[in-house]
Amino acid sequence: MALTRDFRETVQADVKRDPAFRRGILSDAMESLLSGEVALGKELLRDYINAAVGFPKLALQTKIHVKTLHQMFGPNGNPTARNLFEIVAYLQRLEGVRFEVRPAHAALRRKKRPAARGAKQAVRGR
Length: 126
Known about the structure:
With about 130 residues, this protein is an all-alpha fold. It has 7 helices and no strands.
């Protein structure tokens, strides 16, 4: 029985081959970060960077040491906002996309609460 390719290798091959898939991975990474799923967002960005640009080229473009970049996107990494946004800006230019953040209207509406019983009784008592 033949061994299947590692999932990461498959994703990286798809990222290199398919521009729409590549943009989708980058978009999913950004959505994950913005929704608070930082670990997933960093993992997706790491996979995207490995396949689309490579850490050495990203290091040259951002002036951030390659080892630091690997640590930032590792499981325990905690990139600063400045570094993260600089990297995202470069990746957007590279990919020819621009991400925008827009408010999403929550489906939850404030329900009108009935007046407290004590308040109604006080009005009637006058």
